[in-house]
Design the sequence.
């Protein structure tokens, strides 16, 4: 199985622990008539400056070695990273001095068979019981060190929290009031100025820190409270009143899997989940706010640098822990600082006001764990971005999101064959949102030629729920193709920004709001153009937030296209969503299954949404909003509504080819996911008895859901049991069971490009009985009919 499909959690759990060092030694091998590759070696235990395979050196020494030789390159310089965890206390900074020259590259890659992890976390050991009655454990992490994330046995833990009812609180200009006796415990919380209020709204997920609590009055820190209680979808009057909670107090520890850190003495507390042994647990405490920062200046950019086979892990962005909080506006952008707030902003500015428009040109972007700006010809391939406390990869974001202080200016950046999972916020954000992003004062700032292809992005937005997988904002020539995206709280793919307000001619709606008192009404187009969303498989999204969809667009994007994508299970939200100002898009040959409104355009108020060509798509829902053929320059033609899952062959071809390219022929230790149900094929109850019939159940990664496909075309579970057609059955309704593996043809299965699994002996399809989707649905064999209950996907 490819590295990008390997079990990431196992990789982290098994990684060796040591200091961050890289060994660099030089070995020359001829790769052509004039090119010679220089190998430099690194290991977590490396020391000295030899940097050879026999005597590896530290990461900083490896970087110094690269700098000493890259000006006279006659071939690539490859830094081979040995197995283990490379622990950073400060980010690895790469500039023009670290670049490839003379047509060659500097490559940082995993050594053969190695699985190196670059981590910003420290390992936590020495656990002891702190409260036996509540099963709370404690360990020292060092005084005055803070984090917003903790990772236990390769998975994110939950920061201590308590859910509350919005109706029990009154929002005021300075904080909250409550009267319910059930909330009196809030008055006596310790470390009150570390407690945070969190509200998950319609399209924002906000945090605001507490200053003090007493007499049933909660006074909030400023300016976080002011910025969180005005504008749109704000804390006090959100577009959707979603979950509300208080977080980050020792007193909130009451559920297995929760944690809290008291920074003054430097002690972290944790309640183990069932079966966790704290003396053997792998606990990672992030201390770094970013890992790798790649970029120089516009005059001297970083360039020709590659990263291959590396895992990036263990960061925590601390911005929301300050008095700024996190006043999110959308998809990782936020307001900070002091503004001309109305004295009654809670009641007068809950759906915007002229003063709020002054903030819009100055919204900040969340910094990423790995940052690329003022750089060109940078590639990430076969990498892992996992367990990160912010956006995973930021490409050409605004300067405020880059530790280098230089934003934008990213070109010819490629991300391919990689995995992004268990990340607090977005997967990949390419482009900025401020003026120099959409109307650059220096053409070297333009973000262009960004390729994001054949990646898997899932389980993102864990702490900032209004997050997406991939978001090019203002980019020229972005291609997002053949990625698989799933288990998302919000939209699948977002592209564009600005709600049309920064497009040529501006937008009358934003003139009425007062925006152009604070920024120009531009007469020229933005840098967003020629962007393509092609062949992606997006499923099981919109699991928490509202007002989103499979593919979400904003603002004008000339010559842009959405084609060959397969969207499935959108939780009754939108398939194709053309929001404010979306123009010049062509959407064709997309399949939209199990969606709500299959296509919608926001044509309210005075925006210029239009000039949209939506043709030859297939959808399972006939509802379409705001899109009429001939209206606003739109062409809406040739679209087909499909009922009862009877997709035509042309649609099935799109389904089969969407997502990550060639599937591995021998998947190892994976789950088999039902295309209709989203549930996994499992052996009930972990049984090992011959003849046990398989069923569907919520995917949980247990051993009874873990399958390996062998070269003999067997599907093996537990290592020695095979998927079997009961009694050599070849008729409809034959039970799919497990049996001791014996190489019979009733235990051999073909994996087909259309997602079906067919028996070699019978030719019948593996089928979820009666097209049911509930837990416990039995698996049988049935004549292949193109139904989604006969389509299967693999998941690591």
Sequence:
């Amino acid at each position: 199985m490819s590295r990008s499909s390997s079990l990431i959690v196992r990789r982290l759990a098994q990684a060796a622990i040591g200091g961050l060092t890289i060994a660099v030694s030089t070995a020359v091998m001829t790769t052509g008539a004039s090119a010679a590759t220089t190998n430099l070696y690194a290991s977590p235990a490396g020391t000295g400056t030899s940097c050879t395979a026999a005597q590896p050196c530290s990461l900083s020494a490896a970087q110094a070695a690269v700098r000493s030789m890259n000006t006279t390159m006659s071939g690539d310089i490859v830094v081979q990273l040995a197995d283990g965890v490379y622990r950073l206390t400060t980010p690895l900074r790469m500039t023009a001095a670290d670049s490839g020259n003379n047509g060659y590259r500097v490559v940082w890659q995993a050594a053969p068979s190695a699985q190196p992890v670059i981590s910003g976390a420290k390992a936590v050991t020495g656990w002891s019981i702190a409260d036996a009655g509540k099963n709370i454990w404690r360990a020292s992490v060092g005084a005055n060190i803070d984090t917003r994330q903790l990772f236990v046995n390769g998975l994110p833990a939950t920061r201590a929290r308590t859910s509350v009812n919005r109706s029990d609180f009154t929002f005021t200009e300075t904080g909250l009031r409550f009267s319910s006796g059930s909330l009196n415990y809030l008055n006596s919380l310790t470390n009150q100025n570390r407690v945070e209020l969190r509200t998950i709204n319609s399209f924002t997920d906000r945090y605001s820190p507490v200053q003090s609590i007493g007499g049933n009055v909660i006074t909030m820190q400023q300016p976080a409270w002011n910025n969180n209680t005005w504008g749109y979808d704000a804390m006090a009057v959100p577009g959707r009143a979603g979950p509300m909670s208080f977080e980050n107090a020792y007193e909130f520890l009451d559920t297995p899997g929760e944690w809290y850190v008291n920074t003054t003495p430097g002690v972290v507390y944790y309640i183990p989940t069932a079966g966790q042994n704290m003396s053997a647990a792998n606990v990672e405490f992030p201390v770094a706010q970013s890992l790798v920062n790649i970029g120089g200046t516009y005059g001297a950019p970083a360039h020709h640098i590659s990263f291959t086979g590396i895992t990036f892990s263990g960061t925590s962005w601390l911005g929301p822990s300050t008095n700024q909080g996190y006043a999110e506006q959308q998809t990782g952008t936020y307001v900070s600082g002091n503004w001309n707030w109305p004295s009654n902003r809670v009641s007068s500015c809950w759906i915007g006001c002229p003063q709020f428009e002054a903030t819009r040109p100055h919204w900040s972007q969340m910094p990423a764990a790995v940052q690329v700006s003022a750089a060109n010809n940078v590639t990430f391939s076969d990498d892992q971005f996992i367990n990160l406390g912010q956006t995973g990869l930021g490409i050409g974001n605004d300067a405020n999101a880059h530790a280098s202080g230089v934003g934008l200016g990213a070109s010819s950046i490629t991300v391919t064959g990689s995995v992004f999972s268990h990340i607090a916020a977005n997967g990949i954000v390419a482009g900025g949102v401020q003026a120099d992003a959409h109307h650059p004062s220096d053409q070297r700032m333009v973000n262009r030629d960004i390729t994001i292809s054949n990646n898997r992005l899932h389980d993102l937005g864990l702490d900032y729920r209004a997050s997406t997988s991939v978001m090019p904002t203002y980019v020229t020539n972005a291609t997002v193709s053949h990625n698989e995206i799933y288990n998302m709280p919000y939209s699948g793919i977002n592209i564009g920004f600005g709600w049309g307000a920064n497009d040529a001619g501006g937008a009358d709606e934003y003139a009425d709001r007062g925006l152009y008192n604070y920024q120009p009404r531009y007469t020229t187009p933005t840098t967003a153009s020629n962007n393509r969303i092609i062949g992606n498989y997006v499923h099981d999204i919109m699991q928490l937030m509202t007002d989103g969809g499979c593919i979400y667009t904003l603002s004008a994007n000339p010559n842009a296209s959405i084609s060959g994508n397969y969207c499935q299970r959108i939780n009754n939200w939108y398939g194709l969503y053309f929001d404010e100002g979306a123009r010049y898009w062509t959407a064709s040959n997309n399949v939209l299954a199990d969606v709500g409104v299959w296509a919608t355009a926001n044509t309210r108020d005075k925006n210029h949404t239009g000039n949209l060509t939506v043709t030859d798509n297939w959808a399972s829902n006939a509802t379409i909003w705001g899109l009429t053929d001939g209206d606003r320059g739109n062409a809406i033609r040739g679209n087909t509504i499909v009922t009862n899952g009877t997709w035509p062959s042309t649609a099935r071809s799109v389904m089969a080819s969407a997502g990550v390219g060639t599937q591995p022929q021998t998947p190892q230790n994976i789950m088999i996911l039902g295309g209709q149900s989203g549930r996994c094929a499992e052996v009930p109850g972990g049984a090992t008895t011959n003849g046990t019939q398989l069923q569907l159940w919520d995917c949980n990664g247990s051993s009874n859901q873990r399958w390996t496909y062998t070269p003999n075309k067997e599907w093996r579970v537990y290592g020695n049991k095979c998927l079997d057609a009961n009694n050599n059955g070849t008729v409809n309704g034959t039970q799919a069971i497990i049996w001791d593996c014996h190489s019979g043809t009733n235990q051999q299965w073909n994996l087909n490009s259309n997602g079906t699994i067919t028996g070699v002996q019978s030719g019948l399809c593996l089928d979820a009985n009666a097209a049911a989707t509930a837990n416990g649905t039995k698996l049988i064999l049935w004549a292949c009919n193109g139904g989604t209950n006969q389509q299967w996907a693999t998941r690591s």
User: Anything to note?
Assistant: The longest helix spans residues 59-69.
